[in-house]
Structures are given as C-alpha cells and as structure tokens.
User: Fold this.
Amino acid sequence: MRLIFDDYDNIVIASPVHMGTLPAPMMSILSRFQAQYISQRFLNRVYKPRKKNGILILCGGGDGAPIEAIRLAGLIFKNLNALNWGKNIITSLETDTIPAKDDKRAINLIKNLSIITGKDCIL
Assistant:
C-alpha cells in the first residue's frame, strides 16, 4: 500500500454509515493499511508517509450518530499522515428523509473541496 498512498496529496474516505459505524466492506478495504501499521509498530521499520490532506464524506439515515465511523476514519488518516481531516468532514445524515443527491448543504461542501485539494471537484 505504501506505493499507492504516498503518491497522492489528498486521501478521501467516502462511505455510508451503518449502525453508527463504517460498513464491513469499507472496513475490509481500510484494513489493508494494517500491514503498514504492523511494520512500524512491531517490526520497528521507520516509515513516515509524507503529509497529505484527509477528507471524510459520510452519508446515512436514522437516528444514530456517526461517532464510531469518524473515530475509525481518524485512525486510518493518522496512519497515512493525513492532516486536518477533522476540519474536512462532510455529512449527509438524513437520507431517510432527504436523498444524499438532494442534500444541498453536503453538495456545496463537496464542491468547495477544491479549496482544500487544489483540484476541481465535479459531481
């Protein structure tokens, strides 16, 4: 994974929220970063990825707060040396009443990501 994630300036995690946390398929993908963590923690291999921006986009419905989803994403961002991700959280959490595609607040925030990423964001 080192070859992949160190080539980029921005790491975006976009996921639905199920039962207040990231769903199993997303966790399966994110667990691929475990090898990098293990090599540092237990094999004493020093590797510090270069700094990058972290962006978290979550959508879901119901009355559960995404606290656990945010915590798990934070662990991944930390391991990837993604900075300021806590300021770059975009949510659409009322999808039981407003489809994410109609959530104007979330869409505007995503469009404004070009300020963070330096790239145009096209929806």
In short: The chain is about 35% helix and 15% strand. Strands lie at 10-16, 52-59, 82-83, 89-92. Helices lie at 2-5, 24-30, 34-41, 67-79, 104-111, 113-117.
